[in-house]
Amino acid sequence: MGGCQVLGQAWGGWRRGLGIRATPTAAGFGTKARHQLQRRGASKPSDPPGDQPFPGLLRPETFSREELVDVLRAAVVDLKGPLVTLNKPQGLPVTGKPGELTLLSVLPELSRSLGLGEQELQVVRASGKEASGLVLLSSCPRTASRLQKFFTHSQRARRPTATYCAVTDGIPVTSEGKIQAALKLEHIDGVNLVVPVQSPSRKDIMEGVKRTLSHFRVVATGSGCALVQLQPLTVFPSQLQAHMALQLCPVLGDHTYSARVGAVLGQRFLLPVEGTRPQRQVLDEALLGRLCLTPSQAARLPLHLHLHCLHLPGARPKDPPIELLAPLPSYFSRTLQCLGLHYQ
Fold this sequence. Notes:
Elements (H helix, E strand, L loop, with lengths): L6 H11 L13 H9 L25 H10 L1 E5 L2 E6 L18 H7 L8 E5 L5 E7 L2 H16 L5 E8 L6 E13 L2 E7 L4 H5 L3 E13 L2 E8 L6 H8 L14 E4 L2 E4 L14 H7 L3 H4 L6 E8 L9 E4 L4 H10 L5
Parallel strand pairs: 4-12
Antiparallel strand pairs: 1-2, 2-4, 3-4, 5-9, 5-12, 6-7, 6-8, 8-9, 10-11, 12-13
Helix pairs in contact: 2-3, 3-4
């Protein structure tokens, strides 16, 4: 039976297998991935928090192709029929320049490793390079096309299909709301950066400015930080990081857009984009103490943005939607513990 023919069975299996929420404190990586970390000198899970500030953090740029395939195979959340769901490590780009090691570049090896033979996997939905979390793959073009149409239709109807978890440096003024901003990409000092545009004209829209929208909900607060659920209702590069910076609450580990938030006597404000360049995120001494980090360790703090949940349509029109979940990375869970933030 071909991969496209077992779609109903696959989605039925997810409905049964993922109806119970996975624990968010699990590392999300299997035995082989843990062995990769041990070979690279990571400390044991029993080490105190201060001894290993980023437990479970993988550095995909240091892997060989074979090692990356092993890590991705260990990161598979579920495999049913033509659909493969995995929990992508932070720092792994989905696409890149020819010759670069990316998720897309190793899909043929991953397909063979998962026993799919010559069926070519393609990306249906994925978190960005600096984010961790869910990646949805399909070995069936028809299935991939149907799901991509579902995501496109949901976006046009302003129905969220993806939920991210983020830890922010700062607490949003309101506990829930929407963030709207016109954004554009600008090439500044050799880097593509997202820039907000005030009151965009029709010409601006024609030239690449996009009106973006995200929903946020504060789940917990503590130590001047917040655990926030984010649902993008539009798609734009670095949309969530840019949106939270505009809220004066940059994502923890955002070493690009956090520089746009200044402070005087404890009062935060937005700095002019024209005179602000990306730099390592600066955290105050109290927060560094809570996180048990030195300033040099904080300079390597990974982005705390995780694609935790995806909603898919049921196998049949009357079936309830399916929820796919990816556990939080270990370093993310450690941060929550240090800050006294509890994820429900």
